[in-house]
Amino acid sequence: MRNDTIPQLQAPLTINWAINNSCNFACSHCYSREDTHEELPRDVLYACLEKVARAGVFSVNFGGGEPLLHPQLLEIAAFASGLGLRVSMNSNGWLLDGEKAVALKAAGFTKVGISIDSHIADVHDTFRGVAGSHARALAALGHLQSVGIATSISTVICRINSTTIDELVEMALRHGAGQLNFHNFKCSGLGLANKDDLDLTPDEWKEFYRHALVVKKSVKGLDVSLDDPIIALLGERDAGSLVKGSVCGKLSLNIKANGDMTPCGFIPIVIGNIVRDDLRQVWKDSAVLEKMRNKQPTGKCSGCSKYEDCLGGCTARALALTGDMNSPDPHCWGDDEPSR
After folding, report:
1. Domain Radical SAM core spans what residues (predicted)?
2. CB 223 within 8 A of CB 179
3. H or E segment to which residue 90 belongs
4. Listed range (27-31, 120-124, 152-156) with the worst mean pLDDT
5. Measured between alpha carbons, how far is 39 from 73 in angstroms, rounded to an integer?
6. Most CB atoms within 10 A, among 21, 34, 64, 339?
7. Based on C-alpha coordinates, what's the Rg of the chain?
8. In the sheet where 223-226 sits, what is the strand order?
9. Nearest to 116 by CA among 133, 131, 104, 100
């Protein structure tokens, strides 16, 4: 029996596409620094985007690496937009000046997310490994807004910022961001290597989400987004999600710079390659995706009254830290033993 209440889609709604691996930052939590795969040439990318559009995908979100370092980003985005795909991007903002914002608008970008991990410039700059990056990120928001591109701020919640929710919200409001995404800390790549220094304890995650949910319901003029399934333990869920538990492999799919498809950017299991494989067939027949869509409760998830909504929490985090995607999310603060 499936975990979700909607029929399985014929194709992902969104593709998160890391079109390059190069980056000008040295972030402490980066999941892709160890990814040295080759990058697809433009004409091959075009053909792959055509396949994606024919499959019925709605939107493509470009990432990396830093996508603005890709010399043909604007051409690729314009091609994708011309196919009817909704085009967005995540960026660190360093290269995004007024001229670039105009070019992004012309290429069809509808939304750009800028990564900002603290309201304090020095804290953000240290975390991202580049002095002056905080100021450039805030300036990027203004450049994007001036040309009519919707903006969001992406914040990776960890030890440097988990007690500064109010300050982060105030910063987002002051700089006109439409959305503030609080991303739960993943344990992939450098995130795993630096886990002991950056990750919160389960009880600290509980306190963070308690406060964040209060703010989410009370703040006006800003969409505060929480992408972590374990908020179900507090009687909440992501109101924007069509599915329970993690959206990865249910609504979205990740494509790496060399075309490899994975369930999400934080699960390094290759399930196909967009260059040679049929997207719809992979989406329908992948044994890995099938397992993710039909997770089975183990350990303290067995008998948990919140499992129906939480579905074990973040699959990527469980897999990274336990080797089993059915294991309870290590961030979960629920009882250690199943209820009787």
Report:
1. 9-223
2. yes
3. strand 86-91
4. 27-31
5. 13
6. 64
7. 19
8. 223-226, 179-183, 150-156, 109-115, 86-91, 59-63, 14-18, 252-255, 260-262, 272-273
9. 133
Rounded-to-integer distance, Cα 115 and Cα 128, Å: 9
DSSP designation for 279: H
Q: What is the pLDDT of residues 289-323, one digit of tens each?
A: 999 999 999 999 998 999 998 999 999 889 988 99
Q: Residue 260 — φ and ψ, nearest 5°?
A: -65, 135
What pTM does this model have?
A: 0.91
The H-assigned helical ranges of the chain are 42-55, 73-82, 98-106, 121-128, 133-146, 165-174, 190-193, 195-198, 202-218, 279-285, 287-293, 307-310, 315-322
44 CB neighbour count, 10 Å cutoff: 13
Q: What share of the chain is helix, strand, coil (3-state, %, to 5)?
A: 40, 15, 45
Helix (H, G, I), strand (E, B) or coil at 117: coil
Distance between CA atoms of 264 and 138, rounded to whole angstroms?
Answer: 28
Q: How far apart are CA 31 and CA 325, in angstroms?
A: 18
pLDDT of 207-249, one tens digit each?
A: 999 999 999 999 999 999 998 999 999 988 655 567 888 888 9
pLDDT number for residue 145: 97
Tell me: pLDDT of 3 over 70.
Answer: no
Compute the distance between CA of residue 300 and CA of residue 302 in angstroms, rounded to an integer.
5
Can you count the helices (H) and strands (E) in the chain? Answer: 13, 10
Q: What is the mean pLDDT of residues 99-124?
A: 97
Residue whose tokens read 């369930």: 263
In terms of Cα–Cα distance, which of 257, 250, 312, 317 is closest to 286?
A: 250
Q: Taking the alpha carbons of 256, 260, 261, 264 in that order, is the dihedral positive or negative?
A: negative
